[in-house]
């Protein structure tokens, strides 16, 4: 098996959803009448003194022709897409996107905000469809993201282009890709840390990501209905199984918790795009070999013990005594099948990674040997904690091997501490305890109920229809704080909110434009509007937030700015120094010699002749 993402794989399936191509010319015509207002907004943002000085500069706020005629094409309007249908996160996107719009306008660019359904927008990026210029994303609180592998691999050239992977910026750079992939096979933690540092040093110096803030999770529970337990450092979220296992109802034998619609769209949970929505399936309905506990320490679950040998190229795991929900024992064959199925269909299971397996061998009923082509440190700390163990017979009989996208489980036979008692697609799931689990022994039922809008979730919380809620908007979180029978809980996450410029095409293929936009951004305003001022602005373009254990030291990272409110004047000067100019209406123009040709065509892969690391990764 090939241990590196295959950028030219023909059998990758495309991300869900698509949208008609946007007409940039049409958007441009529709915004012509707003130019005067935009110019006044730019002047207001820059302040009277700066505006006056700019007005006296040749080619900035002069006549429409640019005075001496040395302007290139006008930079077209940008399109920013953010995810809708994700509760509190979507509300944060909605409330803070205008701050990005202000930063763009301060630089003489128009920006259209385009709310887009989650799976559709993910498809735009995974298929490199070029429907937009900036993606506004958050990353779910997956504890296995404490391992650095995903954060490094996300921006590798092997994930760029229309290969079904989720390189947020579709950025390709071989200088980055080599250390970003090499960190996974490092022999020691210190060697690995240096490779992480090297990769992020390159990423931040190229401004391929524009950070906004570290995330804060806004959650709550009813103190008159639930005795909270198992929250720990991880807090109330669907990636923390312990909070649902160890919390207990005060009245009756069950409590109800919030979930989002995508979690209950299918029983074929491996195809769900959101790692957060997969959490209940992988860690409550199924169970993992290892996982992070409520204090984010790696612990064994179905694994009894594991051992690395052969220079890290062989990892042997023995299993605890455990049963599936139908009474079948969890065996080495089930473990083998689970991880072979995930790499057998990488385009289908978009949250799956592709470790450098040579083979996965069954030694006996309780022992599995993972043989690797090279050492792969994230196997135990990232891959195993992400995926619950599948019941092989159910998946084989259901046709998952031949047709993974159409597979459906009925009944659902899992390996987790809870089994499904009732399931209504898109509405609710009732879980009851499973007594064959080796490490968790819940004594109550849990109902996950779908809420499609944060306001409806809050009203259900007030009416005691749901007793444990998450993904609150800041405004609703403040309303919970005023309730006498509820506890509002905020948890700092190790995952970021950020802007991801689509780098294969103009305008944001140009490094200086990405840098200027990130420099002009008012992060303090975003923090106040989106996070009640409870997080810290992020100034370096990396997914490793300030609280992530693998974040490189500051002297290895290039920052956009160190000013919380941004530096729009310095950003304009940066663009002028790079040859950009302004017409009489304050609109930004490219340098006259700017090459606007895309780095590669839409819906295709980066060419190997331009990115030789792609061919090397296939060897």
Tell me about this structure.
With 619 residues, this protein is of the alpha+beta class. It folds into 2 domains: 75-214 and 494-578 and 589-618, Roll (Dipeptide-binding Protein, domain 3), CATH 3.10.105; 226-466, Periplasmic binding protein-like II (D-Maltodextrin-Binding Protein, domain 2, 3-Layer(aba) Sandwich). 30% of the residues lie in helices and 19% in strands. The protein has 19 helices and 20 strands. It has helices spanning 24-30, 35-46, 48-55, 88-106, 118-126, 149-153, 174-182, 189-206, 241-246, 275-285, 332-344, 378-386, 392-397, 454-462, 474-481, 511-520, 523-531, 568-577, 613-618; strands at 78-84, 111-117, 134-138, 210-222, 226-227, 248-249, 254-259, 290-292, 298-300, 303-309, 314-319, 357-364, 367-372, 418-424, 428-433, 445-450, 468-469, 486-501, 581-582, 588-589. The strands form 6 sheets. A 6-stranded mixed sheet has the order 2-1-3-18-4-17, sandwiched between helices. A 4-stranded mixed sheet has the order 7-16-15-14, with helices on one face. Strand 19 and strand 20 form a beta hairpin. Helix 2 (35-46) crosses helix 3 and helix 16 (511-520) packs antiparallel against helix 18 (568-577). The longest helix has 19 residues, at 88-106. The termini are close together.
